[in-house]
Amino acid sequence: QVQLMESGGGLVQPGGSLSLSCVASGSVFGIKSMGWYRQAPGKERELVANITSGGTPDYADSVKGRFTISRDNLKKEWTLQMNSLRPEDTAVYYCNAHLRQTWRYEWFEHWGQGTQVTVSS
């Protein structure tokens, strides 16, 4: 019943910028945290950034100072602003959320469909 829809992927040159967004719809009674993960060919999926509903962010060391995660709890939307992009950032990016679907305080993890980000000259 809950869906995460993400957008914003594409091709960008090294040093360029790109912004990803994700919005949750359906039976969302509360959100505990929201995040972004990525997976490159031959590699495991890894955390890029995460933010709590209270606004506390966390970043992977490889993106600190370059990426910024933000959220709008009322709109059930969160974004990942990516600056100074490098070829190593090339991957499929997935949005993620830890939320409750009913009045019960039972938290579940949901994932978006993924969007390709390619950094190349």
Structure description:
- By secondary structure, this protein is mainly β.
- It is elongated and about 50 Å long.
- The strands form two sheets. Strands 2, 4, 5, 6, 9, 10 and 11 form a seven-stranded mixed beta sheet that branches.
- Helices cover 0% and strands 56% of the residues.
- A hairpin with a 4-residue loop joins strand 7 and strand 8.
Number of helices: 0
Query: Structural class, judged by helices and strands?
Result: mainly beta
Q: Oligomeric form of this entry?
A: single chain
Sheet with most strands: 7 strands, mixed
| Number of extended strands | 11
Rg over CA atoms: 14 Å
Would you identify the regions where 5 or more consecutive residues have pLDDT less than 50? none
Helix-strand pattern, N to C? EEEEEEEEEEE
**Strand percentage, roughly?**
over 45%
Secondary-structure topology with pairs:
Elements: E1 3-7, E2 10-12, E3 18-25, E4 30-39, E5 46-52, E6 57-59, E7 67-72, E8 77-82, E9 91-100, E10 107-111, E11 115-119
Parallel strand pairs: 2-11
Antiparallel strand pairs: 1-3, 3-8, 4-5, 4-9, 5-6, 7-8, 9-10, 9-11
Summarize the structure.
The chain is an all-beta fold.
Key traits:
elongated; 11 strands; 4-stranded antiparallel sheet; mainly beta; 121 residues
